[in-house]
Amino acid sequence: xxxxxxxTRCWWLELLLEWPLxxxxxSAGSSSASRSCPPISPSGTTGGDSSQPPAGPxxxxxxxxxxxxxxxxxxxxxxxxxxxxxxxxxxxxxxxSSVCGVVSCAYLFCQRWFLGYVRRNCFTxxxxxxxxxxxxxxxxxLLSSITxxxxxxxxxxxxxxxxxxxxxxxxxxxxxxxxxxxxxxxxLQVDTHNLWLEWWDPNITIFGTLAVFLFMKFWMLxxxxxxxxPAGYFMPVxxxxxxxxxxxxxxxxxxxxxxxxxxxxxxxxxxxxxxxAGAAAFSGSVTHTLSTALLAFEMTGxxxxxxxxxxxxxxxxxxxxxxxxxxxxGTIIVKKLPYLPRIRSRHIGSYxxxxxxxxxxxxxxxxxxxxxxxxxSTVTSTDDSEYPVVDNAETAMLLGMIQRSELIKFLQTQDDxxxxxxxxxxxxxxxxxxxxxxAISPVTLQLSPWMSLHQVHNxxxxxxxxxxxxxxxxxxxxxxxxxxxAGWHS
Length: 490
Fold this sequence. Notes:
CATH topology of the largest domain: Clc chloride channel
Number of helices: 18
Mean pLDDT: 74
Distance between the termini: 51 Å
Structural class: mainly alpha
CATH class of the largest domain: Mainly Alpha
Strand order of the largest sheet: 3-4-5
Shape: elongated
Number of strands: 8
CATH superfamily of the largest domain: Clc chloride channel
Strand content: 5-15%
Radius of gyration: 31 Å
């Protein structure tokens, strides 16, 4: 069964990606992947219309409709995937997504550890602080030397561009079946109609080149993320996930050469479908997003794989979010930037946790008529950045807050004014109070003791709060900071 490409296209997304995918991809055939397919006509049916551009053998081309002929041709170039049985791929997408989820956890852990090591190491820390261009040049030189086509790069398909890598990995043919031809030889130049040959090596086979690619790119991507300069991160991760899914698909096709029996028949395994699911699952689990599935659909121009791809993304995300923060959150943690982690517990009981259960009730406040000695005692005994100001110690009605810097300035002013008195042996005057000498700022946001943990978490995250006071009928009863919100595990 041949799937007709969906004409719904998101032009802004394709323009943003600038990712022309070759329309000359071979379609899935028999187990030997040698069957040829005629190209698709502009109306979506197969045929041999002379108005179409010439297509090579074994092509499944997606050509634009006549209403959009004025658009650049690369906007319509998409890989054509063939899914013989969506239910079969859906059943086995869990294995691909589980592998992607586990590998993404290892990748995120290693990336966060290595980024921290680079910042702690004396030599690399000095380079990052004083010679950022030099550090970037050294990293780029190392990576380019490893991927040199005449060296180790010959086992990593390094002659292919990023576009060609993704195009080849989404190929419908089964490489392990094609590689059984003993007369195969890698061409001197890249053959755009047989990109899979760049992955073929008679010494280590297709599985060896994919394994070398995954192993080398694993730490090479980690090293590249330490460069202090803007660089594309998503597409390399997307391609890495496609290679991971391709390896799983090729392995499944090798173990089940006759296909998998389902629904009373036998369905051949298409490794390209596994590559598509792996690309969306791995990139989604690394970034903790689900929109990578939409990107996969827009890239292929069809939604026949919607169930296995979405299932793979959901499973991989569940595994990654359970054990590791996302790539972006991990970078924030290593750089010690303000960060509020997600609430780990998602069961229904976490919504019953209220502010009064985790707020800090041991806090210091100042009455508005606080004297010099009271302010001095408060500043020297605590290190809070701000203090609540109340009307008096009995009612503790919140009037506002005052910064620690204001109190220190007040103490310094009073101390300078008391120097003449100390020189004459007199007691310094401390008649001035807090309300008459310092600017008290109003409190724009107050928390209630009955607010849920999730509500407080959302407020801190959206408003970028560092600290908030909890009041009950105007009386200050507690303080909540990021430490309390981040450290609470319901």
